[in-house]
Structures are given as C-alpha cells and as structure tokens.
Amino acid sequence: MNFDQLRKEMVERQLRARGLSDERILKVMEKVPRHLFVEESLRHRAYDDCALPIGEGQTISQPYMVAMMTEVLAPAPDSRVLEVGTGSGYQAAVLAELVSEVYTIERNPALSRRAEEILKNLGYSNVHLFTGDGSLGLPEHAPFDRIIITAASPDVPEPLKAQLADGGLLVAPVGGRFSQQVVRLEKRGTDFRERYFTPCVFVPLIGKYGWDENEI
Ligand code: SAM
Question: Among 35, 62, 108, which is best to mutate for testing ligand 1, by the most ligand atoms less than 8 A from CB?
C-alpha cells in the first residue's frame, strides 16, 4: 500500500476540507506514519476517517480529532506539553513534531510499553512516557504550557487545572459517558476562560478525577 499517498489524501479530504488550516500541523499529519501505531492487520485502515481499536478495549482517535484538538491546543515550538491517555502513542508523536517536550501518561502498562517501543523506533527522543492515573497529572514535572486529555471525563480534573502554567491552554473532551464536547480552558491567574468546540465521543478517563472503574 502507498501509505504516503493515503496520508496526503487524509490531510486533504479529512482535515483541510473540514476547515483545519494550521499549515504546521497539517504538515506533521502528512509526515507521521499513523499506520505504524496500529496492529499490522489494521494498517490498511490506518488512514480511514475513524477511530480504530488498539487492543485492551482502547482506541487510536480519528485523524480529524487528533488534528483538530492539536489545532485548538495551539502548541508553540517551546511548549512543554502533558498528554493524558498515551494509547497508541500517535498523538504524542504528532505533538513531539511540534513542541520541545512531551510528557504522556497512560493507565494501561501494556499500551504504554507498546507506545514506548514505537516512539523509540521512530526516534522520538523528546517524548517522556509514564504509567499511572493521569487524572492526577504529573505534579513533579509541572507546570505545563499545554495539557491535552485524550479520554473523556465528566469535568476537567482539578489537579490538571492546577498543573497548567499561567497563560496555558488545556484541551479535553468533557461531558457524559457516551457523548462529550471538546472544551478548551485558558488559565488567567486563578481564572479559567472556557471555549467549546465540536461534539465528540471518547473512551472514558478512568481514575480518581475521572470515571470510577466500577461505573463503566
Ligand atoms: N492519544 C491516544 C492515541 O494517540 O492513540 C488515544 C487515547 S485513547 C482514545 C484513551 C486512552 O486513555 C486509553 O489508552 C486509556 O487507557 C487511557 N486512559 C484512561 N484513563 C486514564 C487515566 N486515568 N490516566 C491515563 N490514561 C488513561
């Protein structure tokens, strides 16, 4: 399969045609080999307009959702970013192309190990992987200029709001168990300005400040 061609088409038809316009991000979406972040048997579907299973009941998000949330996150080249929900490692790779340091935390150790292997093989040395409850953030590495949560929670976890730098941006899918909306918080001192974007459906953030595992 010609994955380079599939990636170009993905960028034109799924991203640019839907109004995404940040050339830096579009270029990265055209560069990062998404097919290497899914199992071999699903590689032919890696550039389809949908989320795909990555094992352990989890998913790699739809390309549009990855690019859209990255655009809303407005990463700067010198940003230190925290991602909650490493999953396949694909979003972390996209971010690693755009910013100086990416910290990413995943609750499932098997997924974290696999993502680490893929990111290492691709040469991403600015991604730091952690295993644990990401709803608690990574206080020892805070503050972060940007925080992106790639699993859904009823509200933005308070520890993550606290670990955001002043002037920083946090993007997350927030809402009910089966449908959410992408929200962006901008931290201004002790205030947070909120802006809402597209509706979405994400797997749950399971943890102290997300959903209780027994409720799922
Ligand atoms: N960003 C990922 C990618 O590029 O493949 C997709 C993330 S997937 C939609 C959501 C991930 O969040 C799952 O891998 C899930 O195990 C993880 N997750 C759920 N609750 C979590 C928590 N409290 N802390 C860290 N990761 C969590």
Answer: 108
